[in-house]
Amino acid sequence: MDLEDTLLICLNHFGIISDLANNNDTANNATFAAGLGEGFGLEFPRLSLAIKNKLSSYNIAEEFAFGVGLGLGNIISRFNDKKSVYEEAKRLFGKKGNRFSEGFVIGFASGSIANILTNDEGENNYNKDENFLISFVMSEAQKDAELARGFGFGLAHIFSILREYERTRFIETIGRNEDFMTGLGAGLGYHLPSIGTRVVEEAIISIRSENFQKGLAIGFAASFKYLTMPEVLGILEYANAMPEYGKILGEKLAEMFGSFDDDKQAALLDVLQRNNEFSRAFSSAIERNMQYVSPLVQERIRILKENFSHLRNSNPDLHTNGISELDTQPIVKGDHNKHKDIMTKRMFNSFPMVGLSTTHRQKNWKIGKSEIAFLGKVQECCVCFIDMIASTKISSNLSAVQLSRYYEIFLNGIAHITENFGAKIVKNAGDALIFYFDTLKQQPPLSLADDNYDNHSVKYTNNFKNVLDCCLTMSAASSVLNAKMLSERLPPIQYRISADYGEVSIAKSTSSQSEDLFGSAMNISAKINSKAQPNGFVIGQMLFDRVNDMSEYIFVPANEKLVMPNGEYNVYYVKEKEKRTIINPFERRGLD
After folding, report:
1. What is the CATH number of domain 379-587?
2. What are the domain boundaries of the chain?
3. What's the pLDDT tens digit per position in 126-180?
4. What does the buried/exposed string (b/e) look like for 50-88 if buried means 16 or more CB atoms within 10 Å of the residue's CB?
5. What pLDDT does 118 receive?
């Protein structure tokens, strides 16, 4: 008995092929059928004509046909006569339903497209032999909703390695198909643990589609248990700004809530305290899944519903005139501790109440190394200053252990971002952090005739972009940092960021390992910090002169200028022209 006969016996034994029109056993082996089918698909071009003819005489299970399509789609770019290979497989496995085609477009988009485009020079020409299947699959996908969703889902798997013009080409060709957008969003969310957050964030900015947002929520829910804690907090924070996304995410996460670890369950219960679509959808859906939740967590959910009306009602009223429930609590003059507790909560009444669902947790908060390294030089550079707001007042209400943890989360989180963008930390000064960029002095060649003009110019521009992007990423990190603070029953944090350019001297004390900066850039950066808005970013005139032609940013002159001995010094607020959704700020990196 040869291998091919053995495979046919195996297929028949597991109910994957049958002479019967109705095969009731197939449903019990769907996963096996799809997996074995994928293996057949990977080997299909090498199968003998005899086994192909035998297969054509059977009634093929739909999941097996799906797997064959998936496997064949992954490898079809390797063959010269792609069209005939595809048509032969479609004739054999596409007899019943559309499952073969659905598997094929997913496999093709996630595997073969990248290989085909490797030799593509970028011209928009799908008529060449090696590109005809791209045109064919995209055409078929636009005719069928399931194929469109499958193509989008598969394409998401390689989205991070596609060049920008390739992404644009696909979006312009098929991007108006909302089923494709649903699949693309679901695929990006599903593949987030492997492709990283940056490509997902860029897609969120550039793709304006409600169906993309819905798909993204479905994908995030599927990959939720594999995400890091910063990523978890980032996608939950995004739900606060996107109602439809939040509604679907809430429903899906409630369905899988029992499978999450303690940290993720606690993070979800913390954000339920916000009155939004996510919380309402989650609260409604979790009732159907309470049997899979531990008694302790069931009790926490019950307490949350007792304390927050939006978790009990399908359409809860918002707080009247912006007055929170905390503001309506009476203060008993004789009870000093209660008075202090209520006043502390009122200080942060724009944030959800903490404590009902929180356990002590730190183990999943992994954003990188905690140690800080530094090196001193004397040269022109950008000096940046980040300073916490009202830290003295806030810290007075914290124990020594809480205070240490409060500063640890903030300083090490910010330090990790500086490292990602190539900045160097000089030191932390209490509740502030000082860092600088020392790779800025290389000017582009003055002559356009210089062979290296373009490379130098791009490098010079990227150096200053890294300064701005680093500080704006720190600004965006406030939501994730605050979510972490709240999860550990610590008060929320606000800070200001400032930067300026100029020459500095870096001195090192003989009695200490720390270093210090001396020079105008250091002094001005520290002085203009107070001009920034909470969690905002400002720059001085010297830095503005070098970046004001960058079209990606908005520079707004501050009303109040810095008074210097030799006159007034201009200060500018900095924002991105296109507001970015940053899921995990600790993963963003600078340009080379």
Report:
1. 3.30.70.1230
2. 245-363, 379-587
3. 445 556 777 878 888 888 888 888 888 988 888 888 888 888 888 887 877 899 9
4. ebeebbeebebbbbbbbbbbbbbbbbbbeeeebeebbeb
5. 64
